[in-house]
Design goal:
The structure holds two protein chains of two kinds. Chain A is mostly beta strands. Chain A contains no helices and ten strands. In chain A, 0% of the residues lie in helices and 48% in strands. Classes of the chains: A mainly beta, B mainly beta. Chains A and B meet through strand 5 and strand 9 of A and strand 4, strand 5, strand 9 and strand 10 of B.
Chain lengths: 114, 112
Amino acid sequence: GAGVSQSPSNKVTEKGKDVELRCDPISGHTALYWYRQSLGQGLEFLIYFQGNSAPDKSGLPSDRFSAERTGGSVSTLTIQRTQQEDSAVYLCASSLVPGPNEQFFGPGTRLTVL
Amino acid sequence: KQEVTQIPAALSVPEGENLVLNCSFTDSAIYNLQWFRQDPGKGLTSLLLIQSSQREQTSGRLNASLDKSSGRSTLYIAASQPGDSATYLCAVFTGTASKLTFGTGTRLQVTL
């Protein structure tokens, strides 16, 4: 079956512009996670959608970052007024149910802010 | 706050060698530990998931062990091949935070 897909695979933008990154989880997976991987920082958690419960936004680095998940499936991560330090690979993962279950990752979106 | 460390940061071995990658974590209150592999420019591929009640998991040439009380896990790769070259990441799912905390990874190079 299809895995987690993300689009675009690469995004180059200018400082100050807004960007939207998309994640399509595995069909039927109710939990969805966003992570960021930057050089020198490793992989860090951003936000977690857990079925119908309120999302865990504790990892979002600033109020320029937001995410939504419509209809319990596709998710969009939005970064407003991008800064150069936002340059990173943004990874999405899903798991069958919320909680400590195996996570399956997408290929990521490489964001470069000039 | 959970912290995950991986040693070594980089490793180069000749083809055919057996090798061990190490992962340690500071908070032993984990639900599970997951090992991933990441190829350059790619996402993460799940290799093995060990529940906190388990001591080890095996998949083909890979064997992962978990000593929860001492906060350690090892990934053993038998008879390494050039195709094993990648970055290996361990991650723990801690009870107090519903998310994975990742280590910084071990970059493995298997040479011919």
